[in-house]
Amino acid sequence: QVLFVESGGGLVQPGGSLKLSCAASGFTISSYGMSWYRQAPGKERELVAGISSTGGTTTYADSVKGRFTLSRDNAKNTMYLQMDSLNPEDPAVYYCTRAAWPWYAYWGQGTQVTVSS
Predict the structure, then answer these.
(1) Is 89 exposed, middle or buried (0-12, 13-18, 19+ CB in 10 A)?
(2) Which of 25, 68, 75, 89 is the most exposed place for a label (fewest CB within 10 A)?
(3) How far is it, in rounded angstroms, from Cα 58 to Cα 1?
């Protein structure tokens, strides 16, 4: 079964950095594009960033462009989200998923990112 384990979240001050990891199992991520989503309390889950299967193409939400960097290590079946210059708009639970059918069917528990001074 497809399984994701997100980790790396925590509490950080504004302007700080975190690096999130998404370890996948049940499939080989090299065959798929992958995405990071986040969901803040009372809000819908939103796309943060996406990466092609090879890592050659990345997309970012306007709100995180220039601050977040998505990467993947297919040999480790893991992708990452380097988050720099975190601001009060970023707190949320961050999730990863694969960009393929069945859409939105597989999610991990997510990892909480909190930004507070």
Answers:
(1) exposed
(2) 75
(3) 26
Q: Which residues fall within 8 angstroms of residue 71, CB to CB, at 6 or more apart?
A: 51, 55, 79, 80, 82
Query: Could you read off the pLDDT of 53-105 as tens digits, one per residue?
Result: 988 999 999 999 999 999 999 999 999 999 999 999 999 999 999 998 888 88
The pLDDT value recorded for residue 17 is 98
pLDDT value of position 28: 95
Look up residue 75 and give its two tokens: 């040999």
Half-sphere exposure of 67 (CA within 13 A, CB side): 17
Q: What is the mean pLDDT of residues 11-31?
A: 97
Sheet containing 58-60, strands listed edge to edge, beginning at the edge strand earlier in sequence: 10-12, 111-115, 92-98, 34-39, 46-51, 58-60
